[in-house]
Design a protein that fits this description.
The complex is a heterotrimer of chains A (295), B (368) and C (256). Chain A is mainly alpha-helical and 295 residues long. Chain A has one domain: ABC transporter involved in vitamin B12 uptake, BtuC, CATH 1.10.3470. Chain A contains 10 helices and 4 strands, in the order ααααβββαααβααα. In chain A, helix 6 crosses helix 7. Chain B is an all-alpha fold and 368 residues long. Chain B has one domain. Chain B has a two-stranded antiparallel sheet with strand order 1-2. The two termini of chain B are 17 Å apart. Chain C folds into 2 domains: 166 residues, Rossmann fold (3-Layer(aba) Sandwich), CATH 3.40.50.300; 81 residues, no CATH class. Classes of the chains: A mainly alpha (295), B mainly alpha (368), C alpha/beta (256). At the B-C interface, helix 8, helix 9, helix 10, helix 11 and helix 17 of B face helix 2, helix 3, helix 4, helix 5 and helix 6 of C.
Chain lengths: 295, 368, 256
């Protein structure tokens, strides 16, 4: 293989790693939007808490990778449900903007609370033995392999849950109609909580993987990564889960490619400009359905 | 007794001279305070900050409250105003020789910012709600990212060595002038158009409201005010960098707006003032000073466990406060209402004569 | 003299053809009704005339000007106003403001004059208030000027909606099911009322209605629409006796 193609293959691999993390977070945004038509702006900070939980499990409890991951996902899921029950549920019938503000407030609260405990960036210990394989010039690390395959597995599981199980059917039913579905005996509150739990657990998993891949973590890390994942969800068509995954892979790809050819400071500029262009040209994303307003 | 007071209060509020009088007294104070050192520099600084925050909150309320959109771009407009005016002050206008030119650079900051407001208004023709929120966010991020990538203006390091030209009387004048402009706008046919768009955009069009024009005007006016605020802020801080104007700054302004209440000028003034003061009061040194009269037995443990950590604690308290306000007080302090003094007399009369007895409703309600 | 002429108007949503070869000639001062079953495309006709939708083909002319391609507010400013099937007031605003907003296009001051509170702005505002109060008085809503629209009883909301439409200063008024939710006695009153505002404001009126009592009672001409196509058109008597209409729309019992 030529130098150039090896270089680009390597970039594609890096993009896949970043994209899988974005995808896991984007799914949480999209699931909540699908069911409540609400942008959960605190989601990026649940991801951040996930990263810190991973850090705590690894340093204080000295746990290996798999228990750390499970613990983080459980912790994040609990946090997600707690936020939903305490902060969002009372506002379900309030103007939508109240819920958005509350979500921003919850996010800021989580950031500053974490900051109170960890004012400085923390180093996450290595949990996975780092092996590098050389595939004809392209290097693949064990960590990369785990991140990509684990994310894909989680996404396949989620897709199965949403498409094939009663819980998934209830979720889709609620996102379709909130007036009559409860009358059919669907426990709306429970399903909404489950949605938040699943979304948050995925963000927790993303936090763990992010912390292992980019091992310096700080309380504000969730803002940017969260926004990026949110963009991914929008690009794919928010509320549409397969769209979220596609959006994440497009976004991750664009980011890595921009950095490959331009100074890295241009990354956000390009990403946000693309977002702007996309919304103006195709406001409902790649897989999203426009909502028709009746007169 | 209460009833008599109530009547007196009502009478007082009806007086046409009340608001001009308050403004005149305020203006006199604004000039007197620095002249005769009536308060220390720190209190003066807090007053200036409150003025700037009032401009920011009232102008954001135009878009987020009156129009019912959710814009996150306000810090971006601030940044544009700040950078424009600072560059003019430092490199174009001989401000050292002619201090009056500083006012021009502030004004220019507002105007350039208003032009960018036009850029955000255009997508708002097609896109509303969450998606417009995303567009405004993208705008904010693009402004910040663009500033970081222009080396001539300091890139991520920003600009320092800005002369401190923002004074209390200047901020007072700008605040009064801009609040007056916003109030005039809100109570004009354009302002009513803005309200109509919030209620029902299609019905507004069918009732002859040129919604595109109204949106452009609202966004530009809002951005103009934010640009002025940014210019004043920059010449107060004496240092600006793209990081000063990030999403956290926007969030702060959002807190002020929603704490004070949407679609209310008086609410935004209260919200901004309250927020500014609260943020300062919650400093460890301030609280320690306020409670220093307590006996040492009480004060020392309080200080040890609570006051000393306030620097961090207040960062946790503020967002918590926002969430609590939204949960238990979703309309904010005076959502959808306003001080009678801010509502033009003709509007009050037109609404009132109709309901000869009983309290007046909708908009003309009093604050208490 | 023809006030509004629609020729060969077609409109489709995606693949669905909502209006097909729609023709209409409305004369000045006329009161015409459009009837037809649900989904016949009646409201779509209103949406096409008022510019909410843009006709896929054909032309709609008001006197000399072509309306297709204009935005709704431009069309309203050319003196066409409408009400809605499901009342669409500005619910959280005052009754007065509902009527004032509808005078947007008749307001003669610039943004700058408004911002600086100049003389013309103040005079215009005063004029708008007076005109609004006159209108509210006509509709017996004056005592409710400061009330929030959503708090009004249903009947008053219907009246306010017509008052708001008239505030735009129309010569052509489109009424979308004005009798919805009314009992026969109220419908009688409404008929008198519609005749009266036509006199008072010199209006041409086009209305959509299911309620036969009203349509047969006041319309001078009736157009029957089904699946986007015109089934019949004529005087109330002609429509009542048109066998095709009786079968397709008025139903079997009308035939018997």
């Amino acid at each position: 293989m030529s130098e150039v193609s090896i270089y680009w293959l390597q970039q594609v691999l890096n993009a896949l790693q970043l994209s899988s993390i974005y995808a896991l977070i984007a799914l949480g945004y999209s699931m909540v939007y699908g069911i409540l038509t609400m942008i959960n702006f605190a989601h990026g900070d649940v991801f951040m808490v996930g990263a810190f939980l991973c850090f705590l499990a690894a340093t204080l409890l000295d746990l290996p990778f798999v228990p750390t991951l499970l613990l983080t996902m459980t912790g994040a899921a609990l946090l997600g449900v707690l936020i939903e029950r305490l902060a969002y549920k009372p506002l379900r019938n309030a103007p939508r903007v109240s819920a958005i503000i509350t979500a921003l407030g919850v996010g800021l609260f989580l950031e500053n609370l974490t900051l109170a405990f960890y004012p400085y960036p923390q180093n996450v210990p290595t949990l996975i033995e780092n092996i590098n394989w050389d595939l004809g010039g392209v290097s693949l690390s064990s960590l990369q392999l785990i991140i990509i395959s684990l994310s894909l597995t989680l996404m396949l599981v989620l897709d199965y849950v949403v498409q094939r199980t009663p819980v998934g059917m209830a979720m889709r039913a609620i996102s379709w109609d909130k007036t009559y579905v409860p009358l059919m005996g669907v426990p709306v509150d429970l399903i909404i909580s489950i949605t938040f739990a699943i979304g948050a657990a995925l963000a927790g998993a993303a936090g763990t993987m992010y912390a292992l891949a980019y091992p310096v973590i700080d309380p504000y890390m969730g803002i940017m990564v969260g926004w990026k994942a949110f963009i991914a969800a929008v690009v794919g068509g928010i509320g549409n889960m397969r769209g979220a995954m596609i959006g994440a892979f497009i976004l991750g790809g664009v980011e890595i490619m921009v950095v490959a050819v331009l100074p890295s400071t241009y990354r956000d500029l390009v990403v946000f400009s693309l977002l702007l262009a996309l919304i103006v040209i195709r406001p409902h994303g790649i897989l999203g359905q426009p909502r028709v307003q009746k007169v | 007794m209460r009833a008599t007071l109530g009547v007196f209060w009502d009478r007082l509020m009806e007086q046409r001279w009340l608001l001009p009088l308050l403004v005149a007294v305020g203006l006199a104070l604004a000039f007197a305070i620095p002249q005769f050192r009536l308060v220390n520099n720190y209190v003066q600084l807090v007053m200036i900050l409150a003025g700037i925050n009032i401009i920011l909150a009232t102008s954001l309320n135009l878009v987020n409250g009156y129009m019912g959109e959710f814009s996150l771009a306000h810090a971006g407009f601030m940044a544009v105003g700040a950078y424009t005016s600072v560059l003019l002050t430092l490199h174009v206008f001989p401000v050292a020789a002619y201090p009056g030119l500083f006012h021009l650079s502030v004004l220019a900051g507002g105007l350039v910012s208003a032009l960018l407001g036009l850029l955000v208004a255009i997508p708002s023709f097609k896109v509303r709600g969450d998606y417009l929120a995303i567009i405004t966010l993208a705008f904010l991020m693009i402004v910040k990212s663009a500033l970081e990538n222009i080396d001539v203006i300091g890139g991520p390091r920003g600009i320092s060595g800005i002369p401190r030209l923002t004074t209390l009387p200047l901020v007072f004048c700008w605040t009064v002038a801009l609040v007056w402009l916003l109030r005039n706008f809100v109570y004009s046919s354009f302002g009513r158009g803005v309200l109509a768009i919030r209620e029902d955009e299609i019905a507004s069009e069918l009732m002859s409201v040129d919604t595109k024009r109204v949106k452009v005007l609202a966004f530009m006016l809002s951005a103009f005010c934010a640009g002025i605020a940014g210019a004043l802020f920059a010449h107060l801080l004496q240092f600006i960098s793209p990081r000063v104007f990030d999403i956290v700054k926007t969030t702060e302004i959002l807190i002020m707006v929603y704490l004070g209440g949407i679609a209310s000028i008086g609410g935004s003034i209260i919200g901004a003032t309250l927020y500014t003061i609260l943020l300062e009061v919650l400093r460890p040194s301030t609280v320690a000073g306020l409670l220093s009269w307590l006996p040492a037995v009480v004060f020392d443990p309080l200080n040890e466990h609570f006051i000393r950590h306030l620097g961090v604690l207040r960062m946790i308290i503020m967002p918590l406060l926002l969430v609590l306000v939204m949960l238990y007080w979703p309309r904010g302090i005076m959502g959808m209402r306003d001080f009678r003094g801010f509502i033009p007399l003709r509007d009050r009369l037109a609404h009132r004569a109709a309901t000869p007895r009983g309290p007046t409703r909708n908009g003309t309600a009093d604050s208490h | 003299m023809a006030l509004l002429i629609a020729t060969k108007v077609r409109h489709h949503f995606g693949g669905l053809c909502a209006i097909n070869d729609f023709n209409l000639e409305l004369h000045q001062g006329e009161l015409m009704g459009i009837i037809g079953p649900n989904g016949a495309g009646k409201t779509t006709v209103f949406n096409l005339i008022t510019g909410v939708y843009r006709a896929s083909e054909g032309s709609i002319r008001l006197r000399e000007s072509e309306l297709v391609g204009m935005t709704p507010h431009q069309i309203t400013a050319r003196r066409i106003a409408r009400t809605f099937q499901n009342i669409r007031l500005f619910r959280d605003l005052s009754v007065l403001d509902n009527v004032r907003i509808a005078q947007y296009s008749k307001t003669r001051y610039s943004p700058l004059e408004a911002l600086l509170h100049l003389g013309r702005f103040r005079r215009e505002e005063q004029r708008i208030i007076e005109h609004s109060r006159d209108l509210l008085a006509i509709f017996k809503l004056e005592h409710l000027a400061g009330e929030t629209a959503r708090n009004l009883p249903y009947g008053s909301q219907r009246r306010l909606e017509i008052a708001r439409a008239l505030a735009t200063g129309p010569e052509l008024l489109l009424l979308d099911e004005p009798a919805a939710g009314m009992n026969p006695a109220e419908i009688d009153q409404l008929m008198d009322f519609i005749r009266w505002i036509r006199e008072q404001f010199q209006l041409t009126i086009l209305l959509i209605e299911h309620q036969m009592q009203l349509v047969m009672g006041i319309c001078e001409r009736i157009k029957v629409l089904d699946f986007g196509e015109t089934l019949a058109e004529g005087t109330p008597e002609a429509i009542r006796n048109d066998p095709w209409v009786m079968k397709a729309y008025l139903g079997a019992e009308a035939v018997g």
